[in-house]
Amino acid sequence: MKDYSLDRITTEDFGAAIDSDRPVIILLPVGSVEPHGPHLTLLTDTVISQGCAELAAQRLEKNGMTVFIAPAVPYGVTDCAAAFKGAVSIPEPVLTDYLAAVVQGFLDNGVDHVCLINNHLEPEHYSAVRQVPKRFDDGKASLACPLSRRWARTLSDEFKRGECHAGRYETAIVLATDANGVKQDVQKTLPEVPVSLSDNILAGVNTFDAMGMENAYAGAPALATKEEGDDMLDRLATMVVTEVLENLG
Ligand SMILES: [Zn+2]
Hints:
Layout: H1 11-19, E1 24-30, H2 44-62, E2 66-69, H3 92-108, E3 113-118, H4 123-134, E4 141-144, H5 149-152, H6 157-160, H7 168-177, H8 184-187, H9 197-202, H10 208-211, H11 226-247
Parallel strand pairs: 1-2, 1-3, 3-4
Helix pairs in contact: 2-7, 2-11, 3-4, 7-11
């Protein structure tokens, strides 16, 4: 698979892409650094954003665009998980300002469009990320995030029930992107935790421990398969491609 990351791009390569006739799109993966049960790593949300960025990049290129995947911004607002080791939360306004500065930096380089891809779903984090495209002229920036009703309905039943933290859905996607990112011997032993994060948050319960997620996961990670992960990634990539094509100026 072609490598779309900026990691190996020189200033000359980047300049040549900007000077060409093809529109240049930056995909910016956004995540969190927070606990994801006993079986997934702290970087899980970033891994998911990165995984769908890679698939979306291939499809956008076929649509006549030049695509780069920018270095991710992994730190987010993670107050729900504060009681667990490994949660590193930054304030909402700081995240909005920082992400907006990154977008501005790419636009100043002559890039046509920046799409933020976010897979950390805590409300304050979502709110911080959602503000970013609003700071730019139409067509310059967009957000692809499965929390919006339009995209949530395309995902799995577990996701729609709101049991979407380190359960079957997220575990499957990590199995599909980087199987080494899952402790599979642990994963297979984990009992189902039928806790809806979205229902709890609506009811004003805002921490994993108060929700009954004593191991920092919900849903049924033991049922996750690579095949389901491939399917979910495909749907998330459709979300990214659609947001870019609809919002591109
Ligand atoms: Zn997650």
